[in-house]
Amino acid sequence: MKRCPRCGTVSGDTDLACGVCGAGIADIPSESLEEATREHNVDVLRKAEKERKELRKIDKRRVQRIISESVLGLGGMVGGFILFVQYGNLFGIFAILFGMLLLIHALFGSLRPMRGGFGRGGRVYR
């Protein structure tokens, strides 16, 4: 088995050029099937670990967004209540409603799973 130096594709021992990219592999030494399989498995494990780290980042950002929206929503509700009770104006009512909407979005809008999975055509929060 020969491994293409340009794209990494494994070809047969008698092949003169890579079947994928067309690079010349006539002078490349052959390697055993076990070695080629082991290198492929290492590459797959590296990619899987990289995807896992990216998913952890997405989950961490989602939690940070939920917490920040909840705090802003509660702050808006408390501030609106204070404005309404002390001054009796409509800005207090608007602040209460805005805080409630923000809190509802933070709690219930973020529980929905991402469409299409994580990054495969779906929406990814970045």
Describe this structure in words.
The chain is mainly α. It has a domain at 52-126. The protein is built from 2 helices and 2 strands. It has helices spanning 33-87, 90-109, and strands at residues 2-3, 10-11. It has a two-stranded antiparallel ribbon. A hairpin with a 6-residue loop joins strand 1 and strand 2 (10-11). Helix 1 runs antiparallel to helix 2 (90-109). The radius of gyration is 28 Å and the shape is rod-shaped. Residues 115-122 have low confidence and may be disordered.
Alpha carbon gyration radius: 28 Å
The SSE string, one letter per element, is: EEHH
Class inferred from helices and paired strands = mainly alpha
Terminal CA distance: 42 Å
Which percent bin holds the helix content?
55-70%
Mean pLDDT: 78
Which key terms come to mind for this protein?
126 residues; mainly alpha; two-stranded antiparallel ribbon; 60% helix; 3% strand; rod-shaped
Topology:
Blueprint: E1 2-3, E2 10-11, H1 33-87, H2 90-109
Antiparallel strand pairs: 1-2
Helix pairs in contact: 1-2
Short description:
This protein has 126 residues and is mainly alpha-helical.
